[in-house]
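Reviewer 2 asked us to include a model.

Predict the structure of this chain.
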Amino acid sequence: MTGNVIKRVYKVIQPLERGDLHREWQSCINQISQLKLNHIFKITVFVDEKNWKNALNELPSKLKAVFPNTCPAFTFLSQTPGSNKITMEVGLVNNDKVSISHKMYHNTSFSLIEYEGNTELWASGLGLTSDINDITSSATQAFEELISLLASEGFSLNDVVRQWNYIPKILGFEMKDGKEWQHYQLFNEVRRHYYNTHRTVEGYPAATGIGVAKGSVSIDICAIKTKDADNIYSINNPEQVNAYQYKQDVLIGELVDGTRTKQAPQFERAKLISQPKSGTLFISGTASIKGQYTIGIDNIDEQTNTTLGLMQKLSATAQHTNEYSTNNSICYSYARVYIKNTEDFKAVQSICKDELQNIPINFVQADVCRDNLLVEIEAEMNMKPQKDMPYNSPVDACHHSLQQ
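Predicted model (C-alpha coordinates):
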Protein backbone atom coordinates (compact mmCIF):
# COMPACT_ATOMS: atom_id res chain seq x y z
CA MET A 1 0.00 0.00 0.00
CA THR A 2 1.33 3.39 -0.88
CA GLY A 3 -1.50 5.56 0.37
CA ASN A 4 -4.20 4.88 2.90
CA VAL A 5 -3.21 2.57 5.74
CA ILE A 6 -6.03 0.68 7.43
CA LYS A 7 -5.87 0.32 11.17
CA ARG A 8 -8.66 -1.40 13.05
CA VAL A 9 -9.23 -0.25 16.60
CA TYR A 10 -11.28 -2.17 19.15
CA LYS A 11 -13.09 -0.99 22.24
CA VAL A 12 -14.58 -3.15 24.98
CA ILE A 13 -17.58 -1.28 26.34
CA GLN A 14 -18.90 -2.27 29.75
CA PRO A 15 -21.88 -0.73 31.53
CA LEU A 16 -20.91 2.15 33.79
CA GLU A 17 -24.06 1.50 35.81
CA ARG A 18 -25.16 -1.89 37.09
CA GLY A 19 -28.80 -2.87 37.02
CA ASP A 20 -31.22 -4.84 34.92
CA LEU A 21 -30.51 -5.68 31.28
CA HIS A 22 -32.02 -2.50 29.88
CA ARG A 23 -30.16 -0.24 32.30
CA GLU A 24 -26.82 -1.84 31.42
CA TRP A 25 -27.71 -1.78 27.72
CA GLN A 26 -28.48 1.92 27.80
CA SER A 27 -25.18 2.61 29.54
CA CYS A 28 -23.30 0.82 26.75
CA ILE A 29 -25.31 2.56 24.01
CA ASN A 30 -24.57 5.94 25.56
CA GLN A 31 -20.86 5.16 25.27
CA ILE A 32 -21.16 3.97 21.66
CA SER A 33 -22.97 7.19 20.78
CA GLN A 34 -19.84 9.13 21.78
CA LEU A 35 -17.75 7.36 19.14
CA LYS A 36 -17.50 8.21 15.46
CA LEU A 37 -20.42 6.09 14.30
CA ASN A 38 -19.32 6.18 10.66
CA HIS A 39 -16.04 4.46 11.66
CA ILE A 40 -17.71 1.42 13.25
CA PHE A 41 -17.71 -1.78 11.18
CA LYS A 42 -18.61 -4.46 13.74
CA ILE A 43 -20.39 -4.80 17.08
CA THR A 44 -20.42 -8.00 19.11
CA VAL A 45 -22.80 -8.05 22.07
CA PHE A 46 -22.22 -10.53 24.90
CA VAL A 47 -25.20 -11.29 27.13
CA ASP A 48 -25.56 -13.56 30.15
CA GLU A 49 -27.52 -16.75 29.65
CA LYS A 50 -30.56 -15.60 31.64
CA ASN A 51 -31.08 -12.42 29.59
CA TRP A 52 -29.90 -13.55 26.15
CA LYS A 53 -33.26 -14.47 24.64
CA ASN A 54 -34.88 -11.19 25.70
CA ALA A 55 -31.86 -9.30 24.37
CA LEU A 56 -32.06 -11.04 21.01
CA ASN A 57 -35.78 -10.30 20.71
CA GLU A 58 -35.75 -6.68 21.87
CA LEU A 59 -32.36 -5.05 21.34
CA PRO A 60 -31.35 -5.44 17.65
CA SER A 61 -33.96 -2.87 16.61
CA LYS A 62 -32.69 -0.48 19.27
CA LEU A 63 -29.12 -0.96 18.10
CA LYS A 64 -30.11 -0.23 14.49
CA ALA A 65 -31.84 2.97 15.64
CA VAL A 66 -28.51 4.34 16.91
CA PHE A 67 -27.14 4.58 13.37
CA PRO A 68 -28.48 7.17 10.93
CA ASN A 69 -28.64 4.77 8.00
CA THR A 70 -27.75 1.06 7.98
CA CYS A 71 -26.28 -0.65 11.04
CA PRO A 72 -22.80 -2.24 10.93
CA ALA A 73 -22.37 -5.99 11.23
CA PHE A 74 -23.58 -7.16 14.64
CA THR A 75 -24.42 -10.26 16.64
CA PHE A 76 -25.70 -11.19 20.10
CA LEU A 77 -23.89 -14.05 21.85
CA SER A 78 -25.00 -16.07 24.87
CA GLN A 79 -21.66 -15.81 26.67
CA THR A 80 -21.72 -14.28 30.14
CA PRO A 81 -19.42 -11.22 30.31
CA GLY A 82 -18.04 -11.66 33.83
CA SER A 83 -20.22 -9.97 36.44
CA ASN A 84 -22.08 -7.85 33.84
CA LYS A 85 -25.33 -8.75 32.18
CA ILE A 86 -24.11 -7.26 28.92
CA THR A 87 -20.86 -6.10 27.34
CA MET A 88 -20.07 -4.87 23.83
CA GLU A 89 -17.00 -5.22 21.66
CA VAL A 90 -16.82 -2.52 19.00
CA GLY A 91 -14.53 -2.50 15.96
CA LEU A 92 -13.66 0.80 14.27
CA VAL A 93 -11.40 1.94 11.45
CA ASN A 94 -9.16 4.82 12.42
CA ASN A 95 -8.81 6.48 9.02
CA ASP A 96 -11.12 9.12 7.56
CA LYS A 97 -10.02 8.32 4.00
CA VAL A 98 -11.01 4.64 4.14
CA SER A 99 -14.49 3.95 2.78
CA ILE A 100 -16.88 2.11 5.13
CA SER A 101 -20.38 1.16 4.05
CA HIS A 102 -23.10 -1.00 5.59
CA LYS A 103 -25.66 -3.14 3.81
CA MET A 104 -28.45 -5.59 4.57
CA TYR A 105 -28.76 -9.06 3.08
CA HIS A 106 -32.13 -10.47 4.10
CA ASN A 107 -31.96 -10.04 7.91
CA THR A 108 -28.18 -9.77 8.18
CA SER A 109 -26.29 -6.48 8.45
CA PHE A 110 -22.77 -6.50 7.06
CA SER A 111 -20.00 -3.98 6.51
CA LEU A 112 -17.65 -3.29 3.61
CA ILE A 113 -14.28 -1.59 4.12
CA GLU A 114 -12.56 -0.39 0.93
CA TYR A 115 -9.04 0.99 0.64
CA GLU A 116 -6.38 1.08 -2.10
CA GLY A 117 -8.24 -1.41 -4.28
CA ASN A 118 -8.79 -3.86 -1.41
CA THR A 119 -12.19 -4.76 0.03
CA GLU A 120 -13.01 -6.35 3.38
CA LEU A 121 -16.43 -7.84 4.08
CA TRP A 122 -17.38 -8.27 7.74
CA ALA A 123 -20.56 -10.20 8.52
CA SER A 124 -21.92 -11.34 11.87
CA GLY A 125 -24.74 -13.47 13.22
CA LEU A 126 -25.22 -15.74 10.20
CA GLY A 127 -27.66 -18.41 11.33
CA LEU A 128 -28.28 -16.66 14.64
CA THR A 129 -32.04 -16.28 14.31
CA SER A 130 -32.66 -19.85 13.17
CA ASP A 131 -35.12 -21.90 15.24
CA ILE A 132 -33.43 -25.16 14.25
CA ASN A 133 -32.30 -27.16 17.27
CA ASP A 134 -30.15 -30.02 15.96
CA ILE A 135 -26.54 -29.04 15.32
CA THR A 136 -26.18 -30.46 11.81
CA SER A 137 -29.22 -28.64 10.44
CA SER A 138 -28.36 -25.46 12.34
CA ALA A 139 -24.77 -25.41 11.05
CA THR A 140 -26.00 -26.12 7.54
CA GLN A 141 -28.35 -23.13 7.72
CA ALA A 142 -25.52 -20.87 8.93
CA PHE A 143 -23.23 -21.93 6.08
CA GLU A 144 -26.00 -21.52 3.51
CA GLU A 145 -26.59 -17.97 4.71
CA LEU A 146 -22.86 -17.31 4.61
CA ILE A 147 -22.41 -18.53 1.05
CA SER A 148 -25.43 -16.57 -0.19
CA LEU A 149 -24.30 -13.34 1.45
CA LEU A 150 -20.76 -13.68 0.09
CA ALA A 151 -22.06 -14.33 -3.42
CA SER A 152 -24.27 -11.25 -3.26
CA GLU A 153 -21.09 -9.12 -3.13
CA GLY A 154 -18.96 -11.20 -5.51
CA PHE A 155 -17.12 -13.03 -2.73
CA SER A 156 -16.81 -16.76 -2.01
CA LEU A 157 -15.55 -19.03 0.77
CA ASN A 158 -12.12 -18.71 -0.88
CA ASP A 159 -11.99 -15.11 0.37
CA VAL A 160 -12.73 -15.84 4.04
CA VAL A 161 -9.60 -15.24 6.13
CA ARG A 162 -11.15 -15.14 9.61
CA GLN A 163 -14.13 -17.09 10.88
CA TRP A 164 -15.90 -17.37 14.24
CA ASN A 165 -18.05 -20.46 14.83
CA TYR A 166 -20.41 -20.26 17.81
CA ILE A 167 -21.79 -23.66 18.76
CA PRO A 168 -24.49 -24.15 21.41
CA LYS A 169 -23.31 -26.45 24.20
CA ILE A 170 -20.21 -27.28 22.17
CA LEU A 171 -19.24 -30.18 24.46
CA GLY A 172 -22.74 -31.68 24.49
CA PHE A 173 -23.92 -34.78 22.64
CA GLU A 174 -26.86 -35.73 20.50
CA MET A 175 -28.09 -39.30 20.77
CA LYS A 176 -29.23 -40.72 17.44
CA ASP A 177 -29.66 -44.37 16.48
CA GLY A 178 -27.79 -45.39 19.59
CA LYS A 179 -24.75 -43.23 18.80
CA GLU A 180 -23.33 -40.28 20.72
CA TRP A 181 -22.45 -37.46 18.37
CA GLN A 182 -20.59 -34.53 19.92
CA HIS A 183 -21.85 -31.08 18.93
CA TYR A 184 -18.40 -29.82 17.94
CA GLN A 185 -17.74 -32.93 15.87
CA LEU A 186 -21.07 -32.55 14.10
CA PHE A 187 -20.16 -28.95 13.26
CA ASN A 188 -16.78 -30.08 11.90
CA GLU A 189 -18.49 -32.55 9.57
CA VAL A 190 -20.71 -29.80 8.17
CA ARG A 191 -17.75 -27.47 7.78
CA ARG A 192 -15.89 -30.20 5.87
CA HIS A 193 -18.79 -30.48 3.41
CA TYR A 194 -18.93 -26.75 2.69
CA TYR A 195 -15.17 -26.26 2.48
CA ASN A 196 -14.85 -29.26 0.14
CA THR A 197 -17.69 -27.96 -2.02
CA HIS A 198 -17.06 -24.21 -2.04
CA ARG A 199 -13.42 -23.61 -1.13
CA THR A 200 -10.76 -24.29 -3.77
CA VAL A 201 -7.73 -22.40 -2.43
CA GLU A 202 -5.05 -24.05 -0.32
CA GLY A 203 -5.33 -23.71 3.45
CA TYR A 204 -8.12 -22.55 5.72
CA PRO A 205 -9.21 -19.38 7.51
CA ALA A 206 -8.02 -18.51 10.96
CA ALA A 207 -10.94 -19.47 13.18
CA THR A 208 -12.45 -19.80 16.61
CA GLY A 209 -14.82 -22.64 17.49
CA ILE A 210 -16.35 -21.86 20.85
CA GLY A 211 -19.43 -22.63 22.89
CA VAL A 212 -22.49 -20.51 23.53
CA ALA A 213 -25.06 -21.32 26.21
CA LYS A 214 -28.16 -20.79 24.06
CA GLY A 215 -29.28 -20.30 20.49
CA SER A 216 -28.38 -21.94 17.21
CA VAL A 217 -25.06 -22.31 15.43
CA SER A 218 -23.96 -18.91 14.16
CA ILE A 219 -21.00 -17.69 12.15
CA ASP A 220 -19.10 -14.41 11.90
CA ILE A 221 -16.53 -13.82 9.17
CA CYS A 222 -14.04 -11.43 7.66
CA ALA A 223 -13.51 -11.97 3.92
CA ILE A 224 -10.89 -10.03 1.99
CA LYS A 225 -10.36 -9.33 -1.69
CA THR A 226 -6.87 -7.93 -2.05
CA LYS A 227 -4.92 -6.74 -5.07
CA ASP A 228 -2.20 -9.27 -4.24
CA ALA A 229 -3.55 -12.59 -2.98
CA ASP A 230 0.04 -13.85 -2.68
CA ASN A 231 0.42 -11.68 0.42
CA ILE A 232 -2.06 -13.77 2.44
CA TYR A 233 -0.26 -16.43 4.46
CA SER A 234 -1.25 -19.28 6.74
CA ILE A 235 0.86 -19.17 9.89
CA ASN A 236 1.67 -22.45 11.65
CA ASN A 237 2.92 -22.90 15.19
CA PRO A 238 6.04 -25.10 15.42
CA GLU A 239 4.92 -26.21 18.88
CA GLN A 240 1.50 -27.41 17.72
CA VAL A 241 0.20 -29.94 15.22
CA ASN A 242 -2.02 -28.23 12.68
CA ALA A 243 -5.59 -28.68 13.91
CA TYR A 244 -6.70 -30.18 10.60
CA GLN A 245 -4.04 -32.90 11.05
CA TYR A 246 -5.20 -34.09 14.47
CA LYS A 247 -5.33 -37.85 14.90
CA GLN A 248 -8.59 -39.65 15.55
CA ASP A 249 -7.86 -40.27 19.24
CA VAL A 250 -8.25 -36.58 20.14
CA LEU A 251 -11.60 -36.23 18.32
CA ILE A 252 -14.60 -37.03 20.51
CA GLY A 253 -17.74 -38.99 19.70
CA GLU A 254 -18.88 -41.65 17.25
CA LEU A 255 -18.38 -41.57 13.50
CA VAL A 256 -21.07 -39.54 11.78
CA ASP A 257 -23.15 -41.51 9.29
CA GLY A 258 -21.48 -41.85 5.91
CA THR A 259 -17.97 -41.03 7.16
CA ARG A 260 -14.97 -43.31 7.60
CA THR A 261 -13.05 -40.93 9.83
CA LYS A 262 -13.98 -38.07 12.12
CA GLN A 263 -13.18 -34.71 10.57
CA ALA A 264 -10.55 -32.71 12.42
CA PRO A 265 -11.17 -28.94 12.82
CA GLN A 266 -10.28 -27.12 9.60
CA PHE A 267 -8.57 -23.87 10.52
CA GLU A 268 -5.12 -22.32 10.55
CA ARG A 269 -3.43 -21.27 13.78
CA ALA A 270 -3.20 -17.74 12.37
CA LYS A 271 -3.62 -15.87 9.10
CA LEU A 272 -1.37 -13.03 7.97
CA ILE A 273 -2.37 -10.32 5.51
CA SER A 274 0.98 -8.66 4.78
CA GLN A 275 1.35 -5.39 2.88
CA PRO A 276 4.14 -2.82 2.53
CA LYS A 277 2.86 -0.21 4.98
CA SER A 278 0.45 -2.22 7.11
CA GLY A 279 -0.71 -5.72 7.82
CA THR A 280 -2.95 -7.81 10.02
CA LEU A 281 -2.34 -11.03 11.89
CA PHE A 282 -5.52 -12.85 12.85
CA ILE A 283 -4.71 -15.26 15.69
CA SER A 284 -7.22 -18.09 15.94
CA GLY A 285 -8.75 -19.22 19.18
CA THR A 286 -5.68 -20.60 20.95
CA ALA A 287 -5.62 -22.98 23.91
CA SER A 288 -3.08 -24.89 25.96
CA ILE A 289 -2.28 -27.58 23.39
CA LYS A 290 1.23 -28.65 22.46
CA GLY A 291 1.60 -31.18 19.73
CA GLN A 292 -2.04 -32.19 19.76
CA TYR A 293 -2.54 -32.83 23.47
CA THR A 294 -3.72 -30.61 26.33
CA ILE A 295 -1.07 -29.18 28.64
CA GLY A 296 -1.77 -28.23 32.26
CA ILE A 297 -4.89 -30.27 32.93
CA ASP A 298 -6.79 -28.82 35.92
CA ASN A 299 -4.23 -25.99 36.23
CA ILE A 300 -5.67 -22.66 35.13
CA ASP A 301 -2.43 -20.71 35.62
CA GLU A 302 -0.40 -23.14 33.51
CA GLN A 303 -3.01 -23.24 30.76
CA THR A 304 -3.24 -19.45 30.57
CA ASN A 305 0.52 -18.94 30.49
CA THR A 306 0.98 -21.73 27.94
CA THR A 307 -1.68 -20.20 25.71
CA LEU A 308 -0.10 -16.76 25.81
CA GLY A 309 3.29 -18.30 25.02
CA LEU A 310 1.84 -20.06 21.97
CA MET A 311 0.36 -16.77 20.76
CA GLN A 312 3.76 -15.09 21.06
CA LYS A 313 5.26 -17.92 19.03
CA LEU A 314 2.69 -17.28 16.29
CA SER A 315 3.43 -13.57 16.19
CA ALA A 316 7.18 -14.25 16.02
CA THR A 317 6.66 -16.67 13.14
CA ALA A 318 4.48 -14.16 11.29
CA GLN A 319 7.03 -11.42 11.74
CA HIS A 320 9.56 -13.39 9.72
CA THR A 321 7.26 -14.60 6.97
CA ASN A 322 8.19 -12.26 4.11
CA GLU A 323 10.00 -9.01 3.37
CA TYR A 324 7.03 -6.85 4.36
CA SER A 325 6.37 -8.51 7.70
CA THR A 326 10.08 -8.79 8.56
CA ASN A 327 10.46 -5.03 8.27
CA ASN A 328 7.35 -4.33 10.33
CA SER A 329 6.72 -4.12 14.03
CA ILE A 330 3.73 -5.97 15.39
CA CYS A 331 1.42 -5.27 18.30
CA TYR A 332 -1.95 -6.39 19.63
CA SER A 333 -5.14 -4.62 18.59
CA TYR A 334 -7.33 -6.58 21.00
CA ALA A 335 -7.70 -9.95 22.72
CA ARG A 336 -10.81 -11.92 23.61
CA VAL A 337 -10.51 -14.44 26.42
CA TYR A 338 -12.95 -17.32 26.85
CA ILE A 339 -12.97 -18.81 30.36
CA LYS A 340 -14.74 -22.09 31.08
CA ASN A 341 -15.32 -21.70 34.83
CA THR A 342 -16.43 -18.46 36.45
CA GLU A 343 -14.26 -19.15 39.52
CA ASP A 344 -11.17 -18.82 37.28
CA PHE A 345 -11.95 -15.29 36.08
CA LYS A 346 -9.73 -13.48 38.57
CA ALA A 347 -6.71 -15.69 37.95
CA VAL A 348 -7.00 -15.43 34.16
CA GLN A 349 -7.63 -11.69 34.23
CA SER A 350 -4.58 -11.12 36.41
CA ILE A 351 -2.25 -13.10 34.13
CA CYS A 352 -3.62 -11.60 30.90
CA LYS A 353 -3.54 -8.02 32.11
CA ASP A 354 0.07 -8.43 33.24
CA GLU A 355 1.11 -9.96 29.92
CA LEU A 356 -1.10 -7.97 27.51
CA GLN A 357 -0.81 -4.51 28.95
CA ASN A 358 -2.74 -1.49 27.71
CA ILE A 359 -4.83 -3.26 25.10
CA PRO A 360 -8.59 -3.89 25.04
CA ILE A 361 -9.26 -7.35 26.52
CA ASN A 362 -12.71 -8.87 26.71
CA PHE A 363 -13.31 -11.69 29.22
CA VAL A 364 -16.36 -13.93 28.78
CA GLN A 365 -17.54 -17.28 30.09
CA ALA A 366 -17.77 -20.04 27.47
CA ASP A 367 -17.13 -23.74 27.07
CA VAL A 368 -13.97 -24.50 25.10
CA CYS A 369 -13.80 -27.28 22.48
CA ARG A 370 -12.22 -29.87 24.82
CA ASP A 371 -13.55 -30.79 28.21
CA ASN A 372 -10.07 -30.47 29.78
CA LEU A 373 -9.39 -27.01 28.33
CA LEU A 374 -10.11 -24.19 30.77
CA VAL A 375 -9.28 -21.11 28.71
CA GLU A 376 -8.99 -20.02 25.07
CA ILE A 377 -7.65 -16.72 23.74
CA GLU A 378 -7.93 -15.11 20.33
CA ALA A 379 -6.44 -11.86 19.09
CA GLU A 380 -5.86 -9.53 16.21
CA MET A 381 -2.46 -7.91 15.71
CA ASN A 382 -1.49 -4.85 13.72
CA MET A 383 1.71 -4.51 11.67
CA LYS A 384 3.35 -1.19 10.84
CA PRO A 385 6.81 -0.07 9.71
CA GLN A 386 9.21 -0.14 12.66
CA LYS A 387 10.02 3.55 12.31
CA ASP A 388 6.35 4.33 13.06
CA MET A 389 6.18 2.13 16.15
CA PRO A 390 7.28 3.03 19.67
CA TYR A 391 8.00 -0.63 20.54
CA ASN A 392 9.19 -3.78 18.79
CA SER A 393 7.94 -6.44 21.18
CA PRO A 394 4.87 -8.41 20.05
CA VAL A 395 3.26 -7.88 23.45
CA ASP A 396 3.64 -4.11 23.42
CA ALA A 397 0.46 -2.27 22.59
CA CYS A 398 -0.41 0.00 19.71
CA HIS A 399 -1.91 3.34 20.48
CA HIS A 400 -5.65 2.77 20.76
CA SER A 401 -7.13 6.23 21.05
CA LEU A 402 -9.79 7.24 18.59
CA GLN A 403 -10.81 10.86 18.34
CA GLN A 404 -14.35 11.21 19.63
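The first strand starts at residue 8 and ends at 13. The helical segments are 21-32, 52-66, 135-152, 183-198, 300-319, 323-326, 345-355. We have added this to the supplementary material.
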